[in-house]
Each structure stands twice: as C-alpha cells, then as structure tokens.
Amino acid sequence: MTSLLVADGRARCSWVGADPEYQRYHDEEWGQPLRGDRALFEKLSLEGFQAGLSWITILRKRPRFREVFEGFDPDVVAAFGDDDIERLMADAGIVRNRAKIEATIGNARIVREMPEGELDALLWPFAPADASRPRPRPRSMDDVAAVTPESTAMSKALRARGFRFVGPTTMYALMQSAGMVDDHFDGCWRVTPQPTASDSEETP
Predict the structure, then answer these.
(1) What pLDDT, on a 0 to 100 scale, did the predictor assign at position 202?
(2) Scanning 11, 55, 159, 199, which has the fewest C-beta atoms within 10 Å of its C-beta?
(3) Catalytic: 47?
C-alpha cells in the first residue's frame, strides 16, 4: 500500500508529517533541480550539518544558518578564521558542532579555488542519466535507498578533492533534495508523470 499523508487536499510523501514548514519544503524545494555553485554549496553544507540529526531540525535553523554563514557565499565563508569559529560555536541558532563548522569553512576554501561553475559541473554528472528506463517509484520509506552507487561515487570524488562530511549517505540525501534523483512516493502530488512510448511518437 502506498505510504502517503493527505493534508489540505494534497497527498504527500509520508515523511513530511504535519509540520507546515516541512510541507512547504516538500512542495516547493525537495526534489526540484538545484543548480549553481552557491546554492549547491549551501545544500552540501546543510546536509553535512544534518548528519546524525533530522532534516526538520536543520530546516528550522536554516534562516539563522544563512545569516551567520553570510548566505553561504563560498568566498566569504572561506575567509572565516578562528574568531568566526568561536562566534559560530556560541550561536544557539545553529548546530554547534566544531568539526562540522570547520569542515564547512574548509569546503568553502576548496570551492573558492574552483573556476566558476565547477562545483555544479562536478556534482550533476552523478545524477542517474537513463530517463528512458526510470526506477520504480518508491511506495514507502522501505523502498528508498540510503546509499547508491552514484552517491558512493560522488562521495569518493568529493573526498578526493579534500571535502569533508560528504559520506555516501549524506550525498544521497543531497541528490534527493537537489533533484538529482526523484524519490517522491507513488501517488504524491509532486510526482512528475513519466513519459510513455506513445508520448514520444510523432503525430501523423
């Protein structure tokens, strides 16, 4: 049986729950293609902070994260020093984890040295490309992978560049949220209909 939650007349993936902000995130952001170095750096950073926590925790703290990390501008974050680390460690509005804060700054320094567009170009090729043979759509969380060969390969590529907090599970969460894969449940209102053979035929 499909695992869905119906609220305000819409059937959503059951993991969303009843939180209005989580519903908005699911409806407007999760699974939508996200492009651009700054946006992907923010996503990479927040997914790293999420490791070991629930995403709703990060989502509720995201406005403050964006404020104290200067909009996740890699050039600005890359310039953070020891005083900034202590400032962030004292801020209850974010996740105060020194290793994750230092990793975010270190990752920003790597992105700063990349040509514009390279982070986007590095991440997106790991998205499964064979749209003509789509995966079966998940019907519950039991059908959703935690790690895939693509997320493992993405993690390996990022680690080779020196990125931290980019394990395969974290990278699959990034792939889901950034629209590199579509894991909306069967029956969810956000599901994009898959093309059929007849769709591709030319009309006489």
Answers:
(1) 41
(2) 199
(3) yes
CB atoms within 10 A of CB 137: 16
- Report CA-CA distances (Å) from 114 to 12, 34, 68, 109, 165: 38, 19, 23, 9, 19
CB-based burial label for 1 (10 Å; 0-12, 13-18, 19+): exposed
- Say how far apart CA 11 and CA 184 lie, in whole Å: 11
- Dihedral sign computed on CA atoms, order 195, 169, 103, 107: negative
Note if 55 is an active site residue: yes
- The answer to whether 190 and 45 have CB atoms below 8 angstroms apart is no
Selecting among 55, 70, 102, 189, the annotated active-site residue is 55
pLDDT score for 7:
78
Residues contacting 166, CB < 8 A, separation 6+: 44, 48, 154, 155, 158, 159
Q: Which of 30, 42, 47, 172 is catalytic?
A: 47
Tell me the C-alpha distance between 134 and 193, whole Å.
11
For residue 180 the two structure tokens come to 């590199």
Question: For the whole prediction, is pTM greater than 0.70?
Answer: yes
Active site (annotated) includes residue 172? no
Under 8 Å between Cβ of 21 and 60: yes
- pLDDT, mean of each 10-residue run, the chain (204 residues): 78 91 95 97 98 94 98 98 98 98 98 97 90 72 91 98 97 96 93 50 39
Which of 181, 182, 121 shows the shortest CA–CA distance to 157?
121
